[in-house]
Amino acid sequence: FNKTQGVAFGCAWCTARVIRNREKDTDLAHNIDSTLQSQSFSSKMIITIVGAGNGGHVLAALAGSQPNVSVRILTTRPAIFGPTIDVERPGIGGGSKVTGRIDRVGSDAASLVPGSDLVIWCGPVVATKEAFAKIAPYVQPTAEGHVTYVGCIFAQGCVHLLAKKMLGGNVPFFAFQSIPWLCRTLSPGKTSEIVGRKEWANIAGHRVNFSWLRRALEPCLGGVRMNLLADFASIVLNPANQIIHPARYWGIFKDWDGAPINEAKIPWLYRDFDRVSAEALEGLDRELQNIKRALELETPELDLQGVLPLADRILSQYRDQVADASSLQTIMATNQAYSMAKTPTRKVEGGVVPNPEHRVVQDDIPHGLCVLKDIAEHLRQRTPWIDLMIEWHQTLMGKEYLVGGRLRGKDIGETSALSVLGGTTLSNIGFVEAPVIPCKL
Q1: What DSSP state is assigned to residue 259?
Q2: pTM for this structure?
Q3: Helices in 366-421 by DSSP H: which ranges?
Q4: What is the pLDDT of residue 93?
Q5: Count of other CB atoms within 10 angstroms of residue 55
């Protein structure tokens, strides 16, 4: 199993544009100005999974079922894992159970990460910075020529700039625009389930050879096809969680008076999707598309083709799993892949209350809507729905991001916005190293 790695794969994407043609992606390494090196595995490819959440469980089982892959898991809960792990309903159309081997598991990055070929973060967006800091010393290219690819199974915000800041510019980095599967853990450390299949998942990278990465990783995804994005812009402007979760959480709890709620009266997150939530989501979707159109004029070097209107994106990825595609509300309510999601709450005496610590809040406000608001300000775009969502959620969180309609609150340093992470031009929305400077921030 030979690994051919491009070690200078950054802004050449924009100028060459070879990745525009998905049919030619296998020739990508030969069309960019890169220094290539070959690295052979003495035994198996080593994938280290960081984080023991739902996605980490699924990836461990699918990757561990491959004969040429050795799986390691870096987690704060090593005791829950045994030598094997199962996933139910793998693949695009569902199927039989798959069992994977786990070769090593532990909580010490120094003992697990060195020598890995792929290190993949599978935890919440809000914890990405901490995860990068933990692995950074052990993923640097070695004097002997070993190169470790670091990736995120799902990312939001300017994650590529965060990766450069935390890992350094020489570590190959990639991120998925959306997690390849909607999934849940059935028995921690033992069994997970794929509840929503996707036919494809987009991926962006910096200094990576996509041809090698796809050959190495795609067999570990249970039948999900990997598509290459030209840059990270479609991840930053992703029409997904960062607009879906705020709209729905606000729709459910906007009139909450602070008193405990009877848990039986809490609606399902998606299957009970109502008109109020749909109106907010439609507003956020419009504003996201307005930002996209303004960027297309200001920064034509960015590839924004992956920033589809939300309804189009869902129907493209889930196809026959949506029973009623007549409106955005019915798409959300009748998507079988979404049907098992419960509304996150926190138990208190007398019932439940909204949970501001849950990832639907912690991921999607500082690393979602605040990032979009930052870009909109640079583009002089009005965003009344984004503003409303940030203001309501920041009150729930006890944070301050938006003040007087401007992103200048005391907690903006916690976000992964372009301005916060050192972006100097709008091109940095897509590129770690901006290929041109069309617009100063």
Answers
A1: S
A2: 0.88
A3: 370-379, 384-397
A4: 63
A5: 26
